[in-house]
């Protein structure tokens, strides 16, 4: 009898703990400030659409490109001046905002970087963790 109560209490703790665990946000704001991303780490739920507001508070243009190392390698040597057609590649003019919606289908970590000349080297990078 006592063992059954211990098991029941453990299961109840697990269920209540899971219900109270904070959910990954479905809306995120990333601020561009002094050529850095704030926050530099965001967490999202895999398989759930997330709306990302990109707010550029700097007096210069930036871009936000999220993806794998291979995607970033292409952009380091690419020639696209602006990004308007892919939700994972967004140009954000000075002192403005853009909104994009993405679904990260798999768990894992990706990097977001501004590839305008000198920005990545200055530290304009961040990480997106889907779980």
Give the radius of gyration. Answer: 19 Å
Strand tally is 9
One letter per element, helices H and strands E, the order comes to HEEEEEHEEEHE
- The CATH superfamily name is Cupredoxins -  blue copper proteins
> Helicity, in percent?
10-25%
In terms of per-residue confidence, which ranges show pLDDT below 50 for 5 or more consecutive residues?
A: 3-19
Task: Write structural notes for this entry.
The chain has 131 residues and is α+β, with helices and mostly antiparallel strands. It has a single domain (23-130), classed as Cupredoxins -  blue copper proteins (Immunoglobulin-like), CATH 2.60.40.420. 24% of the residues lie in helices and 39% in strands. It contains 3 helices and 9 strands; from the N terminus they run H-E-E-E-E-E-H-E-E-E-H-E. It has helices at residues 2-20, 69-76, 119-122; strands at 27-33, 36-38, 41-44, 49-56, 62-67, 89-92, 97-103, 108-113, 125-130. The strands form 2 sheets. The protein has a 5-stranded mixed beta sheet, with helices on one face. Strand 1 and strand 2 (36-38) form a beta hairpin. The longest helix is centred in the first third of the chain and has 19 residues, at 2-20. The two termini are 38 Å apart. The model is unreliable at 3-19 (pLDDT under 50).
